[in-house]
Each structure stands twice: as structure tokens, then as C-alpha cells.
Amino acid sequence: MNNAAAPTPPAPSYKPTDAASVSAHVSSLSQYSALYEESLRDNDGFWAKQAERLDWIKKWDKVSDCNFNEVSIRWFQGGKLNASHNCVDRHVQNGHGDVTAIIWEGNDPAQTRKISYRELHEQVQRAANALKASGVQKGDRVCIYLQMIPEMAVAILACARIGAVHSVVFGAFSAESLISRINDSSCKVIITQDTGVRGTKQDIPMKANVDKAIGQTPTVEKVFVVRRTGSIVEMKEGRDIVWQTALDSTSPHCEPEAMDAEDPLFILYTSGSTGKPKGVLHATGGYLLYASVTHHYVFDYKPGDVYWCTADVGWITGHSYLIYGPLANRATVVMFEGVPNFPDYGRFWQVIEKHKVNIFYTAPTALRSLMKEGDAWPDQYNLSSLRLLGTVGEPIKSPEWTWYHKVIGKGHCPIVDTWWQTETGGILITPLPGATPTKPGSATLPFFGIRPAVMTDQGEELHGNDVRGCLVLSGSWPGQMRTVYGDHQRFVDTYFKRFPGKYFTGDGCWRDPDGYYWITGRVDDIIIVSGHNIGTAEVEGAIGQHNSVAEAAVVGYPHDIKGTAIYAYVTLKTGQVASDQIRKEINLKVREVLGPHAAPEKLQFADGLPKTRSGKIMRRILRKIAENELDNLGDISTLAEPAVVESLVSGRVN
Ligand code: PRX
Questions:
Q1: Rounded to whole angstroms, how far apart are CA atoms 496 and 176?
Q2: Residue 1: pLDDT above 60?
């Protein structure tokens, strides 16, 4: 297993303050424990009660019908609801139309927009009508390729309103990534923007990328183009439509479609251990409920709180905790177009002061990059509005946890380190801010209804505490993905084969002597770079597209800011000579094929790779070399050519 050693646990050292506990939805560990026990004892009863927080057009016949042996997962069958109604209409109908739904903070600090639930309601209905007019029907797939602009929320909710299945593709993805994702789910329509703005980049070619892709995406009929920057972009008559014009010229009334609880809500692609990303499919009722319930308890959300999740909507965190969860809970959310270091390293803290943010949810990688710039940046701003901090995406280590706690939270804000995955739809292991004593680096305890278990490589469950192994889930929860779009067998093989009857997360963990969970890293071929999931096979495939490359192998190694960074070993074709030029070109190739986030930090040209006699690359050895653990390479006797290792060690890139 590829597990970093977990640290020795300190005693639970950060108890929730009285101020955090007194008004919290769950205000003590004993209350959490009682509710947790209850949620396991009567799982269906627990979720039925929670489901009352949503509006149902028709009540469900059966709460759950899940069988991990047959890999069949269904929640709230027979129930009917609409996600956009739950996120928007009902708040307006209940008299909260004037509440701000979205505070949009542009890349340029001078640009801010506030959108009330009433305005959002109108925009969503107009957009839903515009989509319908362009031929989109219930069940059709719509690709959303946007930056962090309010239209992202409108587009998502408009799809949900008419029962179209959205597939958001992260705005930094290249045209090639866009092509494979659009084709995999046969999208009929793309929603994009002219160009994007992010940090110092003023003209990110969004529409131009779509234009590059569209020759190779035969199912696409229409392209909506949001005017964001006003840059001139090509518009093809009959196919390309200006978003604002389409919305202005349509009716502001559109009845929400009654969707079955199990109807798909969206597809979101995530990396897998083969080169092809998986289309993770989430279902309407269970997903929405799970996002809403977890947002309520984990962020202890109360009406009036200003809540900021810095994640991009292109990832699952943005789906669940910027759009669906908070809007279902009538929250006021901050949506931020920019980056933490533009115009300077004080930007996050300036936004918190400006909008009086109460709850702040970000990634450890962002904290590390800001921590290294010193305390003078946060110290310039008034952060006294903050009452709760959160992290997601990768393990948080003690230095940045402590910095977050002391310098940002001034010692009084609980930190929720939330562990979950694209596949889980919402948070599964997490502290509850008014209840759970925290240990820096541990995601602590399971959320209500969640049954984590620890397995040995041989498939035996490890009971009791202080055990290490593979993290699995022994039962379903409403937010669980239902299938890999178009490839159910891949769903079965990836998640249910290794430990039959259990969902395998792909993560290793340690359940410490107090029963707290510490995620120790991936045990498969996925690397988490700056909190983003990247498959080694995808990067290897992209490198392999360079003409000079014969073969490549990619591993992760610890990196101060990114958490883990990519180290690539590349063998060139015979006759090709390694050079800085080829190194640059390979890097560019990866950026072009996958996007900048997947580019290797280090690239070593190698005459050969360490392979077993059957030809399997021994990544364990490559990992050790990348990590500079040269005294600890392990058994290399099974290699076809053990001499390869020596030459790899001598050519190691520092
Ligand atoms: O390895 C775990 C890590 O991120 C993986 C899921 O990545 P993704 O599907 O992109 O979703 C990220 C946002 C939910 C997990 O399998 N991970 C996520 N959160 C944590 C984490 N590792 C440690 N601690 C966390 N809090």
C-alpha cells in the first residue's frame, strides 16, 4: 500500500468552544453519538425524517433499496421532486425572495454583484425556457463549460428545472478534455462564455476552446455563449446563441419538471485508474438531500450566515457546497471568480472582511500557499466575522491546520476537516463544529448514517481501534453515486470488486485509538495534486502523445504547496535525444491535452523503466526515487533488469 505513515495522535486537543457549541445544531459529543447510533439503528427512519427538509411533489414509497452485492442503489423510490424548486422557488414562495442567494466577487476587486433568490428564480426560469427553445428535453445532456460566474449557478439550476442532465467541465480543461467528456455523454448543448478572467489572465479562450472541440463532437447542436468580457469571439449563425439575448427574449415562467428521485441530476467526470475519466452519475433525490443535510450540520448553517466555499463549480465541492447544498438551505453564498494571490496575497482575507463572511471552506493547498507569504496579509484585515472554518480535498497537516486555527480563526473558530469524494456526493467523515473535539490532520468521525470500515489487503475487516488498512463503506447513503455513465460494469469493477459487498474508496486510513479516522492517501493510481484528482494513466497517455516519447510512468511525491506533485519518468524513442526543448514540449503537451493542473512538476528522462518480467512497471520503486528515499527501495530482485534502478537513481531530478 502507498500509505504515508500516520502521525501519532495527540489527545483530542481542540474542543469546540462554548460559543460554538451553545447555538450549534449538534452541541455535544454525546448528542452526536446518540444521533449517530440512532441513524445506524434505524437508517431508513433517520433518512425519512431528514427528507422532510425538502419539498416533495410526491412522497416516496420506499426509503432505501440498496444492495452492494448486486450493486444496486436506490433511495426514495417512487418520490418525485425538482431540485431547482428546492433550491430556489420554495424560498421565494415562503417569503424569502429578498434574501441574497449569491454574492459574486469578480476577479477584479471592484466587481461585485448580489443576486437575490427572487432574481435567481427569474433567471433560472428564463434559462430553462431558453434551453427548451433550443431543443433540450428531459434526460438530454448539457455540457456546462464556464468559469466562476453567476451564470454557472443559473445554468445548472435551469438544467435541473427541466430534467436535463448537466455535465460541468472545469473551465481550465483543454479542448481535448472537453471533446472526450462531451462525447462520452453525448451532450446536445454546450453553455460557455466568450472569454474568462482569472488572476492576471484576462482572456482565457473559453469559446475558442469550444470551437476547437466542436468539429469532433457530433452530438452538439447549439452553443450558448455568456457575454462575460465582451471579447470578440466567433459566432456561428444558427448554432451559437448569446446567452443574455436568449434569456431576455423568453418568458420568465417555467414550471419545474416533476423528476423521479432516482432520475439522474448530473454527471461529473473524475479521474480513474485507466486513461479514461469516469462519468460519475448522481441521482436527484438522494444527492440533493445529502448535500442539504450535510451542509446544515457540518457547516452549522443558520439563516443570515454568509458562507463562502472557494472551490470551483467544475469540481464536486462546488456542486455540493456552493450550489445544491447551500441553496437548498436558503444560504447566502459567496462565489469568487478570482484566485487567492490576485491582486495580492491578501485577497481571500480582503473578501472575508468585505462581505463579512461567517463560514469559510477552502483547500489545504490554498492555505499552504498563503501561509508561506506570512501573517502580515491576513493581519491587515478584519476577520472577526468568521465563526467556522473548513477544509477539503486532501489531508491537512499540522502546520497549516495550526496557522488556519490561530491566524485566520483567531483561536476561536472550529475547523471541520471534511473527507469525501466526487463519488460520495457529500461529506462522509467530518467533525461537527459544536460537538467534535478535533485533532489536526484527522477528519475525525463518520457523519450520520455512514458506516466506515477498515480492511486488510486480503479482504479481512479490522475491528476495534488503532487499525490501519483500506477505507471502505459498509452501507449506502443517499448521496452515493449510482453508476458510471454508460459503463455500469466499470462502476461495479472499480468500487465493489476488491471488497465484495462493500464500497471501496481507494483511500488508505488509520482508525486511531480513539476511533478517529486519519486518511493516509490513495492506495490506487490516483494522485491528489492541490486537491485535484489526477489519474497517472491520463498523464502518461498525454505524455505519450508527444512524437518523441516511447513510454512514460508517472508517480506522486510530497510537495510543500501542492501536497503531492507529479514526477514523470520518460523514455524517448530510439534516436531521439533528451533536451530541455523536448522537456518543455512534453509539458506543453500535457497542458494541452489535460490542462495546466496536470503538468508534471519534475520530468526525468530515463533509458528504461523498472519492470517485472511480465512487463508491469513497478511504481513502488519509481515512487521511492521521486521521494528521495533511496536507502529504502525494497526488493528489486523480481525486476527484469535490476540495473535500470541504478541509472534512474543517478538521473534523479532534485
Ligand atoms: O483521497 C481523498 C482525498 O480526495 C479524494 C477525493 O477526490 P475528489 O473526488 O476529487 O473529491 C475531492 C473533494 C471532495 C479522496 O479519495 N480527500 C478528500 N478530502 C480529504 C481527502 N484526503 C484527506 N482528507 C480530506 N479531508
A1: 30
A2: no
Q: Within 13 A of 539's CA, how many CA atoms are on the CB side?
A: 29
Give the amino acid at 460.
E
C-alpha cell belonging to residue 95:
417569503
How far, in Å, from the CA of 489 to the mean position of ligand 1?
A: 23
Q: What percent of the chain has pLDDT over 70?
A: 98
CA 5 – CA 313 distance, rounded (Å): 33
Q: Which residues pair with 359 in a beta bridge?
A: 307, 388
Ligand 1 touching residue 539 (CB < 6 A): no
For residue 325, give every residue at least 6 positions away whose Cβ sits within 8 Å of its Cβ, in sequence order, or none: 291, 292, 294, 295, 296, 426
For the chain, what are the domain ranges? 18-82+265-451+477-498, 122-257, 530-650
Percentage, residues of the chain above pLDDT 90: 87
Strands 112-116 and 388-392: unpaired
Nearest-CA residue for atom 10 of ligand 1: 533
Q: What is the DSSP string of 495-547?
A: HHSSSTTSEEEEEEEEE-TTS-EEEEEESSSEEEETTEEEEHHHHHHHHHTST
CA of 85 to the centre of ligand 1 (A): 30
Q: Which CATH class is domain 122-257?
A: alpha beta
Model confidence over 172-223: pLDDT tens digits? 888 999 999 999 999 999 999 999 999 999 999 999 999 999 999 999 999 9
- pLDDT tens by residue, 582-614: 999 999 999 998 889 899 999 999 999 898 777
Q: Is 315 helix (H, G, I), strand (E, B) or coil?
A: coil
625 CB-near residues (< 8 Å, 6+ apart)? 633, 645, 648, 649, 652
User: Does 122-257 match 18-82+265-451+477-498 at the fold level?
Assistant: yes
The closest alpha carbon to 452, from 481, 484, 430, belongs to 430
Cα separation, 324 vs 159, whole angstroms: 13
C-alpha cell of 602? 519534475
Supply the pTM of this predicted model.
0.92
C-alpha–C-alpha distance, residues 432 and 443, integer Å: 10
Ligand 1 centre to CA of 317 (Å) is 10
User: Which amino acid, residue 558?
Assistant: P
Question: Quick one: which atom of ligand 1 is closest to the CA of 423?
Answer: 9
Mutate to test the pocket of ligand 1, among 170, 394, 504, 510 (most ligand atoms within 8 A of CB): 394
The structural architecture, per CATH, of the domain 18-82+265-451+477-498 is 3-Layer(aba) Sandwich (3.40)
CA of 528 to the centre of ligand 1 (A): 8
Most confident of 91-100, 363-372, 529-538, 631-640: 91-100
The answer to whether 306 touches 386, Cβ cutoff 8 Å, is: no
Q: Specify whether domain 530-650 bears CATH 3.40.50.10230.
A: no
256, 161 contact by CB (below 8 A): yes
Q: Is 317 in the pocket of ligand 1 (CB under 6 A)?
A: yes
CA angle 614, 617, 623 (to 5 degrees): 150
Closest CA to 159 of 363, 345, 313, 362: 313
Q: Is 505 in the pocket of ligand 1 (CB under 6 A)?
A: yes
